[in-house]
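At this stage, I put together a protein sequence along with its fold in token form, as given directly below:
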Amino acid sequence: MSTRFHDLPQAPLQPFELAWLKRAGIDAAILRLDLIDPLVSGNKWFKLRHHLLHAHASGAAGLISLGGSHSNHLHALAAAGKRFGFATVGLLRGHPQDTPTVLDLQALGMQLHWLGYAGYRARHDAGFWAPWQARYPGWHCIPEGGGGQAGAQGCALIVEQAKAQLGTVGWSDYDAWWLAAGTGTTLAGLVLAEGGAHRVHGALAVPLDHGVPETITALAGTRGYQLHDACRKGFARLDDELLAFIEDTEGSTGIPFEALYTGKALMALRAQAEAGLFEPGTRLIFVHTGGLQGRRGYL
């Protein structure tokens, strides 16, 4: 079995120039996690790294996790399993459907089990994993989205990558982070790594009742970060204004974005920048968390 997952690919830190950032006096850079790997993309490699290390150390034959029919997490997990020699199982929300993501999961060798909607809602119940552990004994179970303490520990390494490249954007230091929050795991990893040194801003791409604040508190405490609503009235809810904003931003920067996470996070940043949240001269790192394969679900 290859253990190259020990070594994380380098995500480039690049200048990020947009007219509304300039008007607000914000000096921004973008950490391009979307460029680290064509399949295990974005923050997913970081979230999976410690899970893969634990699975390898325990001699697990396979990996089990769960997600939806457009899940970036399951897509990355299936690719990582194929690359590093783990069998994979995906527990999916809803009923069988052939989305581009699902077809990729099958092509990558992932065994799929469709849980329906009620069955998927039970994923937080105390006994949820027991039948799957009995069916796949010794396999490593990974929380939704690659979460948990292992996921947060892996995401803490994102801070190291950015700090090592500050000179490429002409900085010696920075003031804050901005990134999308879907489960809260990536944000929690940044908060842990920063230890209060730099504030971490999370743009909530899901409604509050999805439990993101509680997840972050459990993983990283209550200090060093601030959450902002970016869900636009629902998870995975898109609208013409958002899609037009993304199209305009892509045209200005040449950087691709997806609408469910990074697009919503960037739009929320514009709103906060125009409202004066940041003082002129603020040096802000925006994290591109990848997930571009999910664009196929709505384009």
In short: The chain has two domains: 4-38+150-297, 44-146. The mean pLDDT is 94. The first strand starts at residue 13 and ends at 16. The CA atoms of residues 122 and 128 lie 7 Å apart.
